[in-house]
Structures are given as structure tokens and as C-alpha cells.
Amino acid sequence: MIVKSVGHTDEHSKRVAADYDRRARDYDRRWRFYTEGTIRETITRLELTDGCSVLDLGCGTGSLIEPLLERWPQCRIVGVDISQQMLDVACSKPKPELALTCADAHYLPFQESSFDWIVCCNSFHFLSLPTLALEEMGRVLRPGGRVLITDWCDDYLFCRICDFYLRWFDQAHFGMYGSQECSRILTRAGFRVEMLERYKISWLWGLMSVTASSFGQLREEH
Hints:
The chain is α/β, with parallel strands linked by helices and 222 residues long.
């Protein structure tokens, strides 16, 4: 089931939604190697327990939700994405009925303290206001809740080249971050960084995974 709740969306977020609506039908086929690699690395860094609630932020076609449910069937998994078409693809897959919401990551339509974990895999570089999005994550996390971000890492030369190219030619792309810059953004948004790793899933693709816990939001003007 998909709940529509997109509101207060800025122009960049609208471009992301439009771009991924167009890409949705072929996304899984074209990006299979990349998504499988990032999902594998993300799951190995999760520490879920039975009964906990997880928000998959930027869930796309639901590629991460299925292995999460297979490994932790007693967990409540909720997916949110700004692209309606990507969520439609997720609903078309042969899996149990999914709890999906079409919404902007900067304005999450969930009550405070709703989730134990938030996972953001392959989506952080699309966020035009990363601090605001992280503050929203902190708001919907329960006290002591944790966020895990897996994303491209600007510490690697190839990623820096891609970032430069995509800023000019991909309307959905906003910007990559180096590991230390990502850590500073998390700290400014009221998180305590617990783990930060850099690694490659091929000789080109350099990624980072960051786990951080929420310990109270430090609100800033945007």
C-alpha cells in the first residue's frame, strides 16, 4: 500500500521525483550490480532486533526492503521515497504487502519517536538540505535510535570526477560528501557518529557507511 504525503517540496526535490519517475521501469535492470553491492554492505552493518521498527529512507523500488524482511521477519519495515513510479515498481514485486509512503525526506510525514532505525542507502547525495533531512530523521527516531547512511564517498578520485560531471548533467544529483564532511553534517544535526567506514565495491565505486545515534536535535536556521 502506498500513502501519498508529498508536501513542502523544493524545486530540486521536484526534479528528483520527475527524474526517477522516468527511470523507474528500467532502474533495477540498469543498476543491479551497484544496488546489490550497496545493499550487501548496508545489511552487514545493521544490528536489528526482533520487533524493532525501521524506516528505509529513499527506498526506491524496494530492493533493500525484501532482504531486510527475509533476515528480520519480526521487524516493522516502512519505505519512503519521493518518486511515485519507483514505489509502484516496488508494489509490483512478488513480496508481502509493503508499507510505503510517497514523501520528501526533508518533511517526513511520521510522528516523533516512530522508528528505532533509519536506513538511507544510495540516496543521501540527492538531498538539497542534508542537515534539515537529518533533523527530520532525528525527530522521527526514538531516543537512542540510530541512522545508517550508505552513499558514494567523495574521498575517492573516481567519485569526485562523477560528482563534478553529475552536478552539470544530472538534474537529480545534488552533491557527494567526503567521510569527514558527512560526519560533521551528522554532528551539526544532533547525531553522535559511532562508525564510519570507507570501502570499494569495485575498482571504481568508492562508498562510505556511517552509523550514528540520535541524542537530541541542535536546530539551525535554514
